[in-house]
Amino acid sequence: MRWQGGYSLLLSVFMLLVVGGLGVGGTALYAPRLSTNETMELGRAREALMHYAINYIDHYGPQGAGLGHFPCPDTDKPTGKDRSQWHLDGPNPPCGRDAVQTGWLPRHVSGASGRYHFHTRNKQRLLYAVSGNFINNPLGRPVNPSTPGNIQVGQFTDVIAVLMAPPLETNADSIPAWFESNQFDRSDAAYTLIRKSDIQDQLAQRAGAWLISQLQQAL
Predict the structure, then answer these.
(1) pLDDT tens string 8-19
(2) Quick one: which H or E segment has residue 127?
């Protein structure tokens, strides 16, 4: 039948999108005087954030938002002395009203299928800044190919998120004023970036995979 031929053609087109898989590229890491373990921590956290955004639709079910959203930062003090290992370790929404939101990287977020972890330390050790364009709280802010990353770090003006291992003298119980002022390009702190170009191809692949699954269910 004609509709079957059209479906096969559409399926083939989107298979080309998906064939690359959902792999994440290498880490853009700026790490002066950083140990191997700290470098691995930044790289793993970056990868966890990227996979979370690429697969955002899977975390909250069909009633949630679409692809490409990042979590709000955690703005609670990471004392490590709370009554529960999960207490005050998640994001603090809403945060999408600001152009750039800063805080600590959450240890986890709670989704439809359980907790999604960004790190496993008892105390948050990584500073985290994220573009308000990629936050879904307040609701109703879709991410699409024209959504810009609006954080500037050095020569890059299309940054979505910054992860930073702060200098050792930084007070672990408060977010540094210089970080809240978006001074991310520092020679005394290791950091890694997520730019728009780092996830746009994977978002297209994930959207193609989602469309294929919907077409298969419809048949």
Answers:
(1) 444 444 444 444
(2) strand 127-131
